[in-house]
Specification:
Helix content is about 80%, strand content about 0%. By secondary structure, the chain is an all-alpha fold.
């Protein structure tokens, strides 16, 4: 089957608008309950939403989303996704059944569209058949969780997510097709969407506040951090990931796409969402120390983002070893040090003002960008010049 190397279509961007709203709702869910339990619930919901979204990212690599019947199916999935996004604030309470039913609809429409794509590709159809049990059982378990509460409800969610994420390991990538440029662009855009959530958090935190020097300073520092997050991913890492995806083929390419994009982009998005939560509280209370949960979210979110880069690069090295002589080399210690440094900032963030804590985080992020520019100057030029 010929891979379609094209830009992300307007319909895919239109679909992603609903996912943007869903991410915003997850941040709202955690912000309304800034406790460890609230954070855990938010991460469970984000993991479920992510798996639904990434399934459609794979789908549009296998069939033309602008075709009439497919377009209708995507619109149907958008409607269901909007309903479940609306239900997120009450996902573990009054809206649990509504969320579960809408989530099941999103996943069943996904399978139906994949079955349509599989009619023209027997290998893909076989892969879809392997994928169907986990893709059906998991949303049914989330719907079943709506009829329980407390620990039992959480257990249903955990089992459902385990079934989903482990189910994708079956077949070791056989039968799946991936268009590298399109797939990388789609996931890059979703990182931008997540960064946009951080910008929204600045506005929400500043809403109703007088624009004092402290609020403006917090907003400026926040945008510097967000710019650094953009830089550390898009300057080289996103390009390298796409290059390695393009230089492999078949099942190896599918495994790289699964591990690097479907699995490891989730903790990156989760890190950004956690940072957004801490950022909102920072702008609201810039002159006071952050409470424990927002302080940890602010720093640990950034740490998770950077440490995921480290894991992503080592995973690429492992997957391409033996399939190409072009071994990726951008694995320096910068992101590891930055990730650990952000964890080390947590105790200070609990004692100093929120604005000072944000300034410390900004310093770590800027130091990482400077390190990349100085230490890997020639290599980054080579990588960017070889951009596929």
């Amino acid at each position: 089957m010929a891979h379609r190397e094209q830009r992300v279509t307007p319909l895919e961007l239109f679909f992603d608008l609903v996912f943007v709203y869903a991410i915003t709702q997850v941040t709202l869910l955690m912000s309304d309950d800034p406790t460890w339990e609230g954070i855990a619930r938010g991460m469970l919901v984000l993991a479920a939403l992510w798996w639904a979204w990434t399934g459609y990212a794979w789908l549009t690599n296998s069939l033309e989303p602008e075709e009439g019947l497919v377009r209708a199916g995507v619109f149907g999935a958008m409607a269901a996704m909007l309903v479940l996004a609306l239900a997120v604030p009450g996902v573990f309470g009054a809206n649990a059944v509504l969320f579960g039913a809408a989530y099941l609809a999103v996943r069943l429409l996904h399978l139906a569209l994949y079955a349509l794509a599989g009619k023209r590709d027997p290998d893909l159809l076989e892969a879809v058949v392997r994928f169907t049990p986990s893709a059906t059982i998991a949303p049914i378990l989330i719907l079943a969780a709506a009829f329980f509460d407390g620990a039992a409800q959480a257990a249903f969610w955990l089992v459902a997510l385990a079934v989903d994420y482990l189910g994708a390991l079956r077949g070791r990538g056989q039968g799946w097709s991936v268009a590298p440029a399109h797939f990388a662009e789609r996931h890059g855009l979703i990182i931008i969407i997540a960064l946009g959530e951080s910008i929204i958090a600045i506005g929400v935190g500043a809403a109703g506040e007088a624009l004092t020097a402290g609020v403006v300073t917090a907003a400026v520092l926040a945008i510097v951090v967000i710019a650094a997050l953009w830089w550390t991913y898009f300057d080289v890492y996103a390009v390298l990931a796409q290059q390695q995806l393009a230089r492999t083929s078949g099942a190896t390419r599918a495994r790289i796409a699964r591990d690097i994009y479907s699995y490891l982009h989730l903790p990156m998005v989760a890190g950004i969402v956690l940072f957004a939560l801490g950022l909102k509280k920072t702008v609201e209370e810039f002159d006071e120390p952050l409470a424990t949960v927002p302080a940890v979210a602010l720093c640990a979110g950034l740490s998770l983002y950077f440490l995921t880069h480290v894991i992503m690069r080592f995973r690429i090295v492992h997957l391409v070893r033996g399939t190409t002589t072009d071994r990726p080399s951008w694995i320096g210690p910068g992101r590891l040090v930055a990730g650990l440094a952000m964890l080390a900032v947590i105790p200070a963030a609990l004692e100093v003002s929120a604005l000072t804590a944000l300034a410390l985080a900004t310093g770590v992020c800027c130091a990482l960008v400077v390190w990349d520019l100085m230490r890997y100057r020639e290599h980054r030029v080579e990588v960017r010049q070889a951009r596929p």
